[in-house]
């Protein structure tokens, strides 16, 4: 009978050895912080775009092909909603 081979977790299998890639809890924390910061920047950008949309006049909205109702619906969304 053959013993079953146990595979290491994905984050250990695809680690580059000798390429200067840091692994371990510090690398995981850095990755999480990086993703969190990216998400915060995207939320802030969405909020700024929605504030700009709220300032447009009906004439401007008609020019870009958006109704006032559609613009108001978009403006009322929370920044983390896409």
Task: Give an overview in words.
The structure is a single chain. This protein has a domain at 23-75. It is elongated and about 75 Å long. 61% of the residues lie in helices and 0% in strands. With 82 residues, it is an all-alpha fold. The longest helix has 31 residues, at 25-55. It has helices at residues 10-13, 25-55, 58-64, 68-75.
Q: What key attributes describe this structure?
A:
mainly alpha; elongated; 82 residues; 61% helix
Lay out the secondary structure.
Layout: H1 10-13, H2 25-55, H3 58-64, H4 68-75
Helix pairs in contact: 2-4
The biggest beta sheet reads:
none
Number of helices: 4
- Kindly state the number of beta strands: 0
**Rg computed from alpha carbons, rounded to a whole number of angstroms:** 23 Å
Percentage of residues in DSSP E strands: under 5%
SSE arrangement, N to C: HHHH
Distance between the termini: 54 Å
**What do the pLDDT scores average to?**
84
What percent of residues adopt helix (DSSP H or I)? 55-70%
Low-confidence stretches: none
Task: Summarize this structure briefly.
With 82 residues, the protein is mostly helical. It contains four helices and no strands. The protein has a domain at 23-75.
């Amino acid at each position: 009978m053959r013993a079953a081979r146990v595979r290491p977790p994905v984050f250990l299998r695809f680690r580059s050895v000798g390429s200067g890639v840091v692994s371990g809890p510090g690398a995981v924390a850095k990755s999480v912080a990086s993703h969190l910061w990216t998400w915060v920047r995207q939320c802030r950008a969405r909020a700024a775009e929605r504030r700009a949309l709220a300032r447009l006049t009906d004439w401007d909205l008609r020019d870009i092909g958006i109704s006032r109702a559609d613009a108001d619906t978009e403006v009322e969304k929370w920044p983390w909603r896409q």
